[in-house]
Fold this protein.
Amino acid sequence: MKMKWMFFLGAIVALSLASCNIHFEAPMQNEAPESETSGNGNPGGEAPDGENQDPQVPTYVIFDNGANPFSVSVYLDAQRLPGQRLGDKIEAGQRSEAIRFAPSQRTSFFPRFHFELESHPFFFDPPSTGSTEVLVRQGETTTVPIRPLSTVVSPDTPLVNDNEAHLRIYNRGYGLMNLAKGTQVIHTNSGEEGANPGEWALFTVVPAGDFRILEGGNVFPFPSGLVLQKGHFYVIEFDGFAVTLVRKVPITLESLAP
């Protein structure tokens, strides 16, 4: 009898719960909002640092030589090999044309400065501290500033990359004039044997040695007090009777200043 009553009470409780329609759910958990992700892993589909990743969009560099009083050539290598030159020579105070370029993480550009002294062309390759390193971004035009030469070298630094002296010799004599070191004749920078009367010639020499002028079988020594030095430019005259030093100029920024 007791078992029947217990069964009857259990049935009543079950019917009561079902009529109340009570649901038990697991508590809600916080869900992270969905976000779009580009192929490079950046949210929102943007390239890192705003870089345009579309390989169809061309990349360019422009070299700004606005801060220099000298024209400049730009190279990709510190050796400045001909095949590493980028574009044409950039005139003083000017900018280059846009040059198509491959994007890179970091690229170093090496300038070569061109100048004239006594109407003769020279060039100077500064040390590696004169290079400019920039990030070239895909699909953008990157402007590369060329550092002023005055911030790379001191005013009295020789602007030559050799151990040589440079001579401009004017022939006011009466026959072909040759420059010799001892008994060895030195050709001009243009490959000529010497200079005819009324002409001048430019020579590049290693300073040490006994220099002289040869004309018509005669020998004319350099002035006894003249000792050639590397990194200097000498203007010399020969009048058919003697050799005279007109002026000596160190090849430096200080000498090039207007």
The CA atoms of residues 75 and 83 lie 9 Å apart. The first helix runs from residue 2 to 20. The chain has a mean pLDDT of 82. The radius of gyration is 40 Å.
